[in-house]
Amino acid sequence: MNMQKKYSFDSITNNKILKGALIALTGGAAISLLTYLQGQDLGNVTINGVVALLVPTLVNAIREYMKGQ
């Protein structure tokens, strides 16, 4: 195992930071999207339900996709 040098990041740490940032950005984007959609009149209760189901599913899919080694 490679030791990380002081005051620097190794490639493993860089990848962890990048993954964490992407997960945080995905969650923030989902909140922004839901806030925007909350103010919109989509005109159909079914569409609102589909949106409410798809957004968390999409966020979880992205999180699982980035979870690997």
Can you tell me about this structure?
- By secondary structure, the protein is mostly helical.
- The chain has one domain.
- It starts with 10 loop residues before the first helix and ends with a helix.
- The relative contact order is 0.12.
What are its keywords?
single chain, 69 residues, mainly alpha, 0% strand
In short:
It is built from two helices and no strands. By secondary structure, the chain is mainly alpha-helical. The protein has one domain (14-66).
Helix proportion of residues, in percent? over 70%
Whole-number total of structural domains: 1
Total of helices = 2
What order do the helices and strands follow?
A: HH
Query: Can you tell me the overall shape?
Result: elongated
* End-to-end C-alpha gap: 15 Å
The quaternary organization reads as: single chain
How many E-type strands? Answer: 0
Largest sheet: none
Mean pLDDT across every amino acid position: 77
β-strand amount = under 5%
As residue ranges, the low-confidence spans are: none
Helical/strand content category:
mainly alpha
Gyration radius (Cα, Å) is 18 Å
